Amino acid sequence: MSMQPKAVIIGMMGAGKTRVGKEVAHMMGLPFADADIEIEREAGMKIPAYFERYGEPAFRELEADLIADFLEDFDGIFSLGGGAPMTPSTQRELAAYIARGGRVVYLDADPHEAMERANRGGGRPMLSGDANARWRKLYKQRDPVFREVANVHVHTRRQTPQQAARKVMNMISERTVHVTGTGIEPYDVVIGEGALNHLADVLGEGVAKVALIHTRPVQRHSDRARTLLRQAGYDVTDIVVPDAEAGKTVDVANGVWRRLGDEGFTRSDAIVGVGGGAATDLAGFIAATWMRGIRYVNCPTSLLAMVDASTGGKTGINTEAGKNLVGSFYTPAGVLADLTTLSSLPNDIFIEGLGEVAKSGFLEDTEILHILERHADELRAFDGATFLGSPLEDVTAELIERTVTVKMHHVSADLKEKGKREFLNYGHTLAHAIEKLEHFRWRHGNAVAVGCVYAAELAHLLGHIDQDLVDYHRSLLGSLGLPTSWDGGSFEDVLALMHKDKKARGNMLRFVILDGGPGHMMHLEDPPADAVREAFERIRH
Questions:
Q1: Least confident of 54-63, 280-289, 315-324
Q2: What does 154-193 look like in DSSP terms, one character per residue?
Q3: How far is the first Cα of the chain from the last one, in angstroms, to the nearest whole number?
Q4: CA–CA distance, 133 with 312 (Å, rounded to integer)
Q5: Taking burial as the number of CB atoms within 10 A of a residue's CB, which of 29, 75, 97, 201 is the most buried?
C-alpha cells in the first residue's frame, strides 16, 4: 500500500508553515514532518552552514530528493521550506502528488506578519542583507509560482495558528466534484465545512459588484458570505427574496432586475445565491437573464439544494402555468456546498433532502442505497446542533458527493432535458402533480419519495421489476423518515397534471422506471391506463 501525505504545506518564509502544520497534524491525529528539519538531520548540519559550505544549488538538489521521497512514503502533514516549490523537479513531483488526489496548500499570510516572523526567527540564509527588501523581492518571484503549484489556497491574515489550522484542516477534508460536459464551461462543486471560503477565488478578478441574493432564514450564512465578499474588496448589493416557492415568481424576479438596474450592474458583475433550492433557482435565473448572462456562484444551504439544485444548471421560476416551466439552462462559475449551513436545518428539512439522495441511488449508484441503509437511524435522527464534527457529517459529505456525481453523469451527457438527463426525473412525474395539488405545501423531496414508490409499483405491474424491489423502495424510504404514500387528491386531477409534465410528449404520458433493478432505467411511453390507475391506488395508503 503506497502512502502519501494528507497535505503538503507551502508558503513564504514566516507564513507559519511549521507552526500551523504541527497544529493541523495534531487536530487530525497525524504525524508531522518539516522538510527543513529532515534535511538538517540527513545532512548532519544546520541549513545556513550547508549553504555556506556547498552553495544553494547543492542544497536545492538535496532538498528535492528528500521531498520526492517523502511524497511517496509519508502519511501525515508535510511542510516544505520557502524556496522548495521553485525547483522544477519538485514542481513535477507536486503535480504528480496532486494527480494522485493530494492537497498542496498555499499558506498565504499577511506580508507584514510574515516578514516580522521571518526576521524574528533568524537563521534564514535567503534573507541576508536588508531582510525586508529581500523578502518582498522573493515574494514577487514566488507568489505566482505558489498559486500555480497549489490546489488549496488558504489566507491566514490576522489569524491565530489554531484558527489558521482549522481552516487548513477543513479545506483539505473537502470533497470536490468536477462538472464537465458538452457545451458547458467546466466548474467545481466543493463540499465541505467552510467551503464558502472559496467565494472570492471562484468569482475571480474583474468582478466589481456582487448582488447577494438570499432569503431571511439563512441570514447567518448570507452575513458570512457578505463579510467574505467585502474582505475581498467587492462592492456588495444585498437582495432579500421571499422564502421557498414564494420566491420563485415573475414579480420577485422583476423586483430583482429593477434593483440590478438601479445599482448599475453590467456584464462584468456577478450574482451570488445563498439559500435553499428555490432561492438558488431564482438567483441562477436572474444571472442567466441579466444582460443575457453574468457570472454566478451558487451557495446552497439545504441538503436538497446541495444535491438537487446545485448541479446541472437548471434555473427557473414558477408561473400560473406550473412549476419551473419558465427558465433556462445556465451553468454557475462554481457551487460551494458549505456543510456548516446544514447545522441550522430543522430535522424535517434535512430528511426531505434524502428523497433526492435515495433517488440517485436507485438511478445509478447503488452504494448510496447501502450507505442509507447502514446509517438510516442516525440520518433520521439528524440534529443540526450536534451535526458538525460528528461521524454523520462525513457520511453526509459522501452522500452529497455521490449524489452530485450521479447527477453530473446524467447532465454532462445532455444539458437539455432529453434522453439520459430525463432519468434524473425518476419519481418526479407524480411528485410534481402532488406538489401542485398540495399548493406546494408538500416539500419536494417528500413528494419525490412517494413518486419513486409510485414508479416502482407501475414498473412491477408491467413486469419490469419484482415485488421485492417495490417493497425495498417502501422500507428504505420509510426507514429514513420519508413518506411512501399520499391520498390528497383524486386520480383524475393527478392524471391531468401528469399530462402537463415537462417530460410529456404531445398528449402521451411518459414515465421513467426501473427495468430489472437499480441502475437500469428506461422510458415508459404511454403505459396502459388501467396500470397507471392501479399503481396510483397502491400508493394511497
A1: 315-324
A2: EE-TT--HHHHHHHHHHHHT-EEEEE--TTS--EEEEEET
A3: 53
A4: 49
A5: 97
